[in-house]
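Quick one:
INPUT:
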């Protein structure tokens, strides 16, 4: 007997035993098949799982290719199943699943007393109650590939208020991992100036996505929430690699489909009936006065008098300072009244405790007489890089420093360092002043001596 005949004989024997057992203990079951609205199979897979199957006679679950309206050619069949209920029935296929195609799960009964599905012999099942009326009552249902979520961002009702350092977007949906990036802009378009970004977001739906900003928002200004895709295979945003996303259905038609929408920053109403607190009283409050929660207001201690900031140089040095948490010393340009928005320098990550000779490189030469402001910002994302998420965790008030008009002398002249002697002209004037004081003191002493002798 050849191998093929032996297999057929064994199949017939096994199938006959299954059918005999079923006939001896028949149960009243309705043939049914349950296929979820979106099946969990992907393009390239070589098998598919059917959520649940119920058979009232021995048979198979057979997967067909097809259109959305009817099944087509057979792609694969399950093993022979006895009457009963089954969950997650795995069916191997003859080929890989193609992207976007529709598969059909169809019930068949075993008709020729073996355990192998035979197309044209084993018949498809019809059922007036559980069958599909669209295909004449066949227990056959389409299986559609789960679709990737459409990219969309909902900025209606976004929380963006004057003075806040960030925006909260109510809803974001991504088809691939990425970020929501906050840009400066006008009412019609965003600029290239990035204010901040969200944390890394996985594909899917997200609610109340927080986008931290590198500065306080201004009342009445327009900022833009823009979706970027993570293209570098990591979780770190890099603007030159992780580019903005377009979507024909949910993008902004005014910007060629970019998923980018404006957010208007709400201005804080002016309250003219509040009493005006004199600046002198505000200045009299010590830096370590407790806030409303009872905690110290400042987590940074440095004396602006000792900060070395000289005209013409590109760095600022703090000889001694203390911080209570790991963070960065941030230098911001400004005026005597307060800091501006432009950050001109950031230190490396500083560890909490007492620090000495903290130097910060700035992006331009300092000008004598200008004011810069020093702020400590806590590291809040667990890395060693200063970014928009850290800015929200600002520690304490900014410290004002005025750049000295004294420029460092040329190398080798004894005036190369900020703690060296002042230039000759200044030193000469100081010596003259000391000499004049000495003459005055000498005259007073002589007068007292004459009075005693008289």
């Amino acid at each position: 007997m050849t191998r093929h005949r032996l297999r057929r004989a064994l199949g017939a024997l096994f199938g006959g035993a299954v059918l005999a057992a079923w006939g001896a203990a028949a149960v009243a079951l309705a043939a049914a098949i349950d296929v979820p609205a979106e099946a969990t199979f992907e393009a390239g897979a070589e098998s598919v799982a059917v959520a649940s199957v119920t058979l009232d006679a021995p048979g198979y679950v057979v997967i067909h290719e097809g259109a959305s309206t009817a099944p087509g050619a057979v792609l694969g069949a399950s093993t022979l199943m006895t009457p009963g209920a089954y969950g997650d029935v795995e069916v191997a296929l003859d080929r890989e699943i193609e992207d976007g195609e529709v598969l059909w799960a169809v019930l068949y009964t075993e008709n020729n007393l073996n355990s192998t599905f035979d197309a044209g012999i084993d018949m498809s099942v019809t059922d007036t109650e559980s069958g599909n009326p669209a295909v004449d009552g066949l227990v056959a249902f389409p299986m559609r590939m789960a679709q990737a979520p459409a990219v969309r961002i909902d900025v209606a009702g976004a929380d963006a208020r004057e003075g806040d350092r960030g925006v909260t977007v109510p809803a974001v949906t991504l088809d691939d991992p990425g970020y929501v990036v906050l840009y400066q802009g006008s009412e019609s378009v965003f600029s290239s100036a990035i204010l901040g970004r969200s944390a890394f977001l996985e594909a899917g739906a997200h609610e109340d996505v927080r986008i931290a900003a590198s500065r306080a928002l201004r009342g009445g200004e327009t900022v833009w929430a823009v979706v970027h895709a993570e293209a570098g295979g990591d979780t770190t945003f890099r603007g030159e690699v992780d580019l903005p996303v377009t979507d024909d259905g949910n993008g902004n038609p005014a910007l060629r489909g970019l998923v980018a929408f404006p957010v208007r920053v709400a201005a804080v109403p002016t309250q003219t009936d509040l009493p005006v607190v004199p600046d002198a009283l505000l200045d009299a409050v010590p830096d370590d006065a407790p806030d409303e929660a009872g905690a110290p207001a400042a987590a940074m201690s440095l004396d602006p008098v000792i900060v070395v900031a000289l005209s013409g140089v590109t760095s600022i040095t703090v000889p001694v300072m203390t911080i209570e948490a790991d963070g960065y010393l941030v230098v911001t340009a400004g005026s005597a009244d307060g800091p501006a928005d432009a950050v001109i320098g950031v230190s490396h990550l500083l560890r909490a405790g007492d620090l000495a000779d903290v130097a910060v490189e700035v992006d331009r030469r300092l000008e004598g007489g200008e004011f810069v402001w020093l702020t400590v910002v806590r590291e809040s994302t667990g890395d060693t890089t200063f970014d928009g998420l850290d800015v929200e965790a600002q520690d304490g008030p900014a410290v004002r420093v005025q750049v000295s008009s004294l420029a460092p002398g040329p190398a080798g002249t004894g005036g190369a360092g900020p703690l060296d002697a002042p230039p000759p002209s200044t030193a000469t004037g100081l010596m003259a002043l000391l000499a004049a004081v000495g003459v005055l003191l000498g005259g007073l002493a002589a007068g007292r001596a004459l009075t005693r002798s008289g």
